[in-house]
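Why does residue order matter? Because the sequence determines the fold. Keep that principle in mind as you read this record.
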Amino acid sequence: SPDQPGWFANDDHTQFIRDETNEGRQERVMMDTEGPGCLVRFWLTTVDNKRGVLRIYLDGSRTPTLVFPAYDLLAGDLNLHEPIAQPHPGYTATGNGGNTLALPIPYQNGCKVTWEEQGSGPRYYKIEHRKYPAGTRVATFTRAGLDSARAAIRDTGKTLLSPPMVPETIPQILDANLTSGRQASLDLRPGPCSIRHLELRLDPETLADMPSALRSIILRIEFDGKETVWCPVGDFFGSGAGLNELRSWYRSVLPDGTLICRWVMPYEKSARITLENVGSKQVRAELRCATDGWKWDSRSMHFHAGWHHEADLRTPPARDWNFVRLKGRGVLVGDVLSLYNK
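Structure:
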């Protein structure tokens, strides 16, 4: 909390519900829930070392169903692959970093997760679970059940790594040579429609100019006569500062510099996309936009995206920085945070 000394120091680590002794072992309880439910996501990370044992107990059993011989969800024998078991950037098996396990672990009558410390270092974790109404029938996780579901798990992983294809419509293309201060626009098909796929390629004068081009070419989008998107293209497509490869369901940044966005952006009557060069150097840009039909009704909403930048934020003193403030009805769907540390 803000009145505690660790508020600004990433000090929310090594927090446990209680300590207990099991079979002579000192175990620190990370999660303890009763009744039917499902552990759906387990995120953790650390620094320095990972020595110790993670255990997951189900249905009140004194024998753990799953054992990981380190503070590492890839250290066990589940034999799972990305993205179901996902290493974080910078992860090493013996040193820094962590991973995320997205394997559903259902249970009929409670789940307890413990950590037996055999080393040192901060232990960060977040465990997400669903709690079902009392009386719900749940098939508790077993090794045999895992083995029988491996084909479905592989198929799910392939699906998550294979974003939706471009709709089978002829894309509209904006091909412009953007000198300093110039803008070019593309009017989309009359609505009701929805943008389903945006693909942008930038060709600056030299490869060294790509980072500045990603920040100086501004994407602006109007839906039904109102501009709701204003953002540098590098940030909008998820690249952040410079050209950084990205693979995600809604956005991709390819090694060749192709930027792809798959957010669904509906509009009732009209939409216009504008690219504007606020930099000092010429950039050639090619934008492809694929649209599809949309049933516009009272629940439909326009897509919004903004950009905020502050420089020379010196520390100390430590301070809270306002990341975003949103008002009204809507759904928060994503963000990009880029830091320049000195």
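The helical segments are 143-148, 150-160, 210-216, 233-236.
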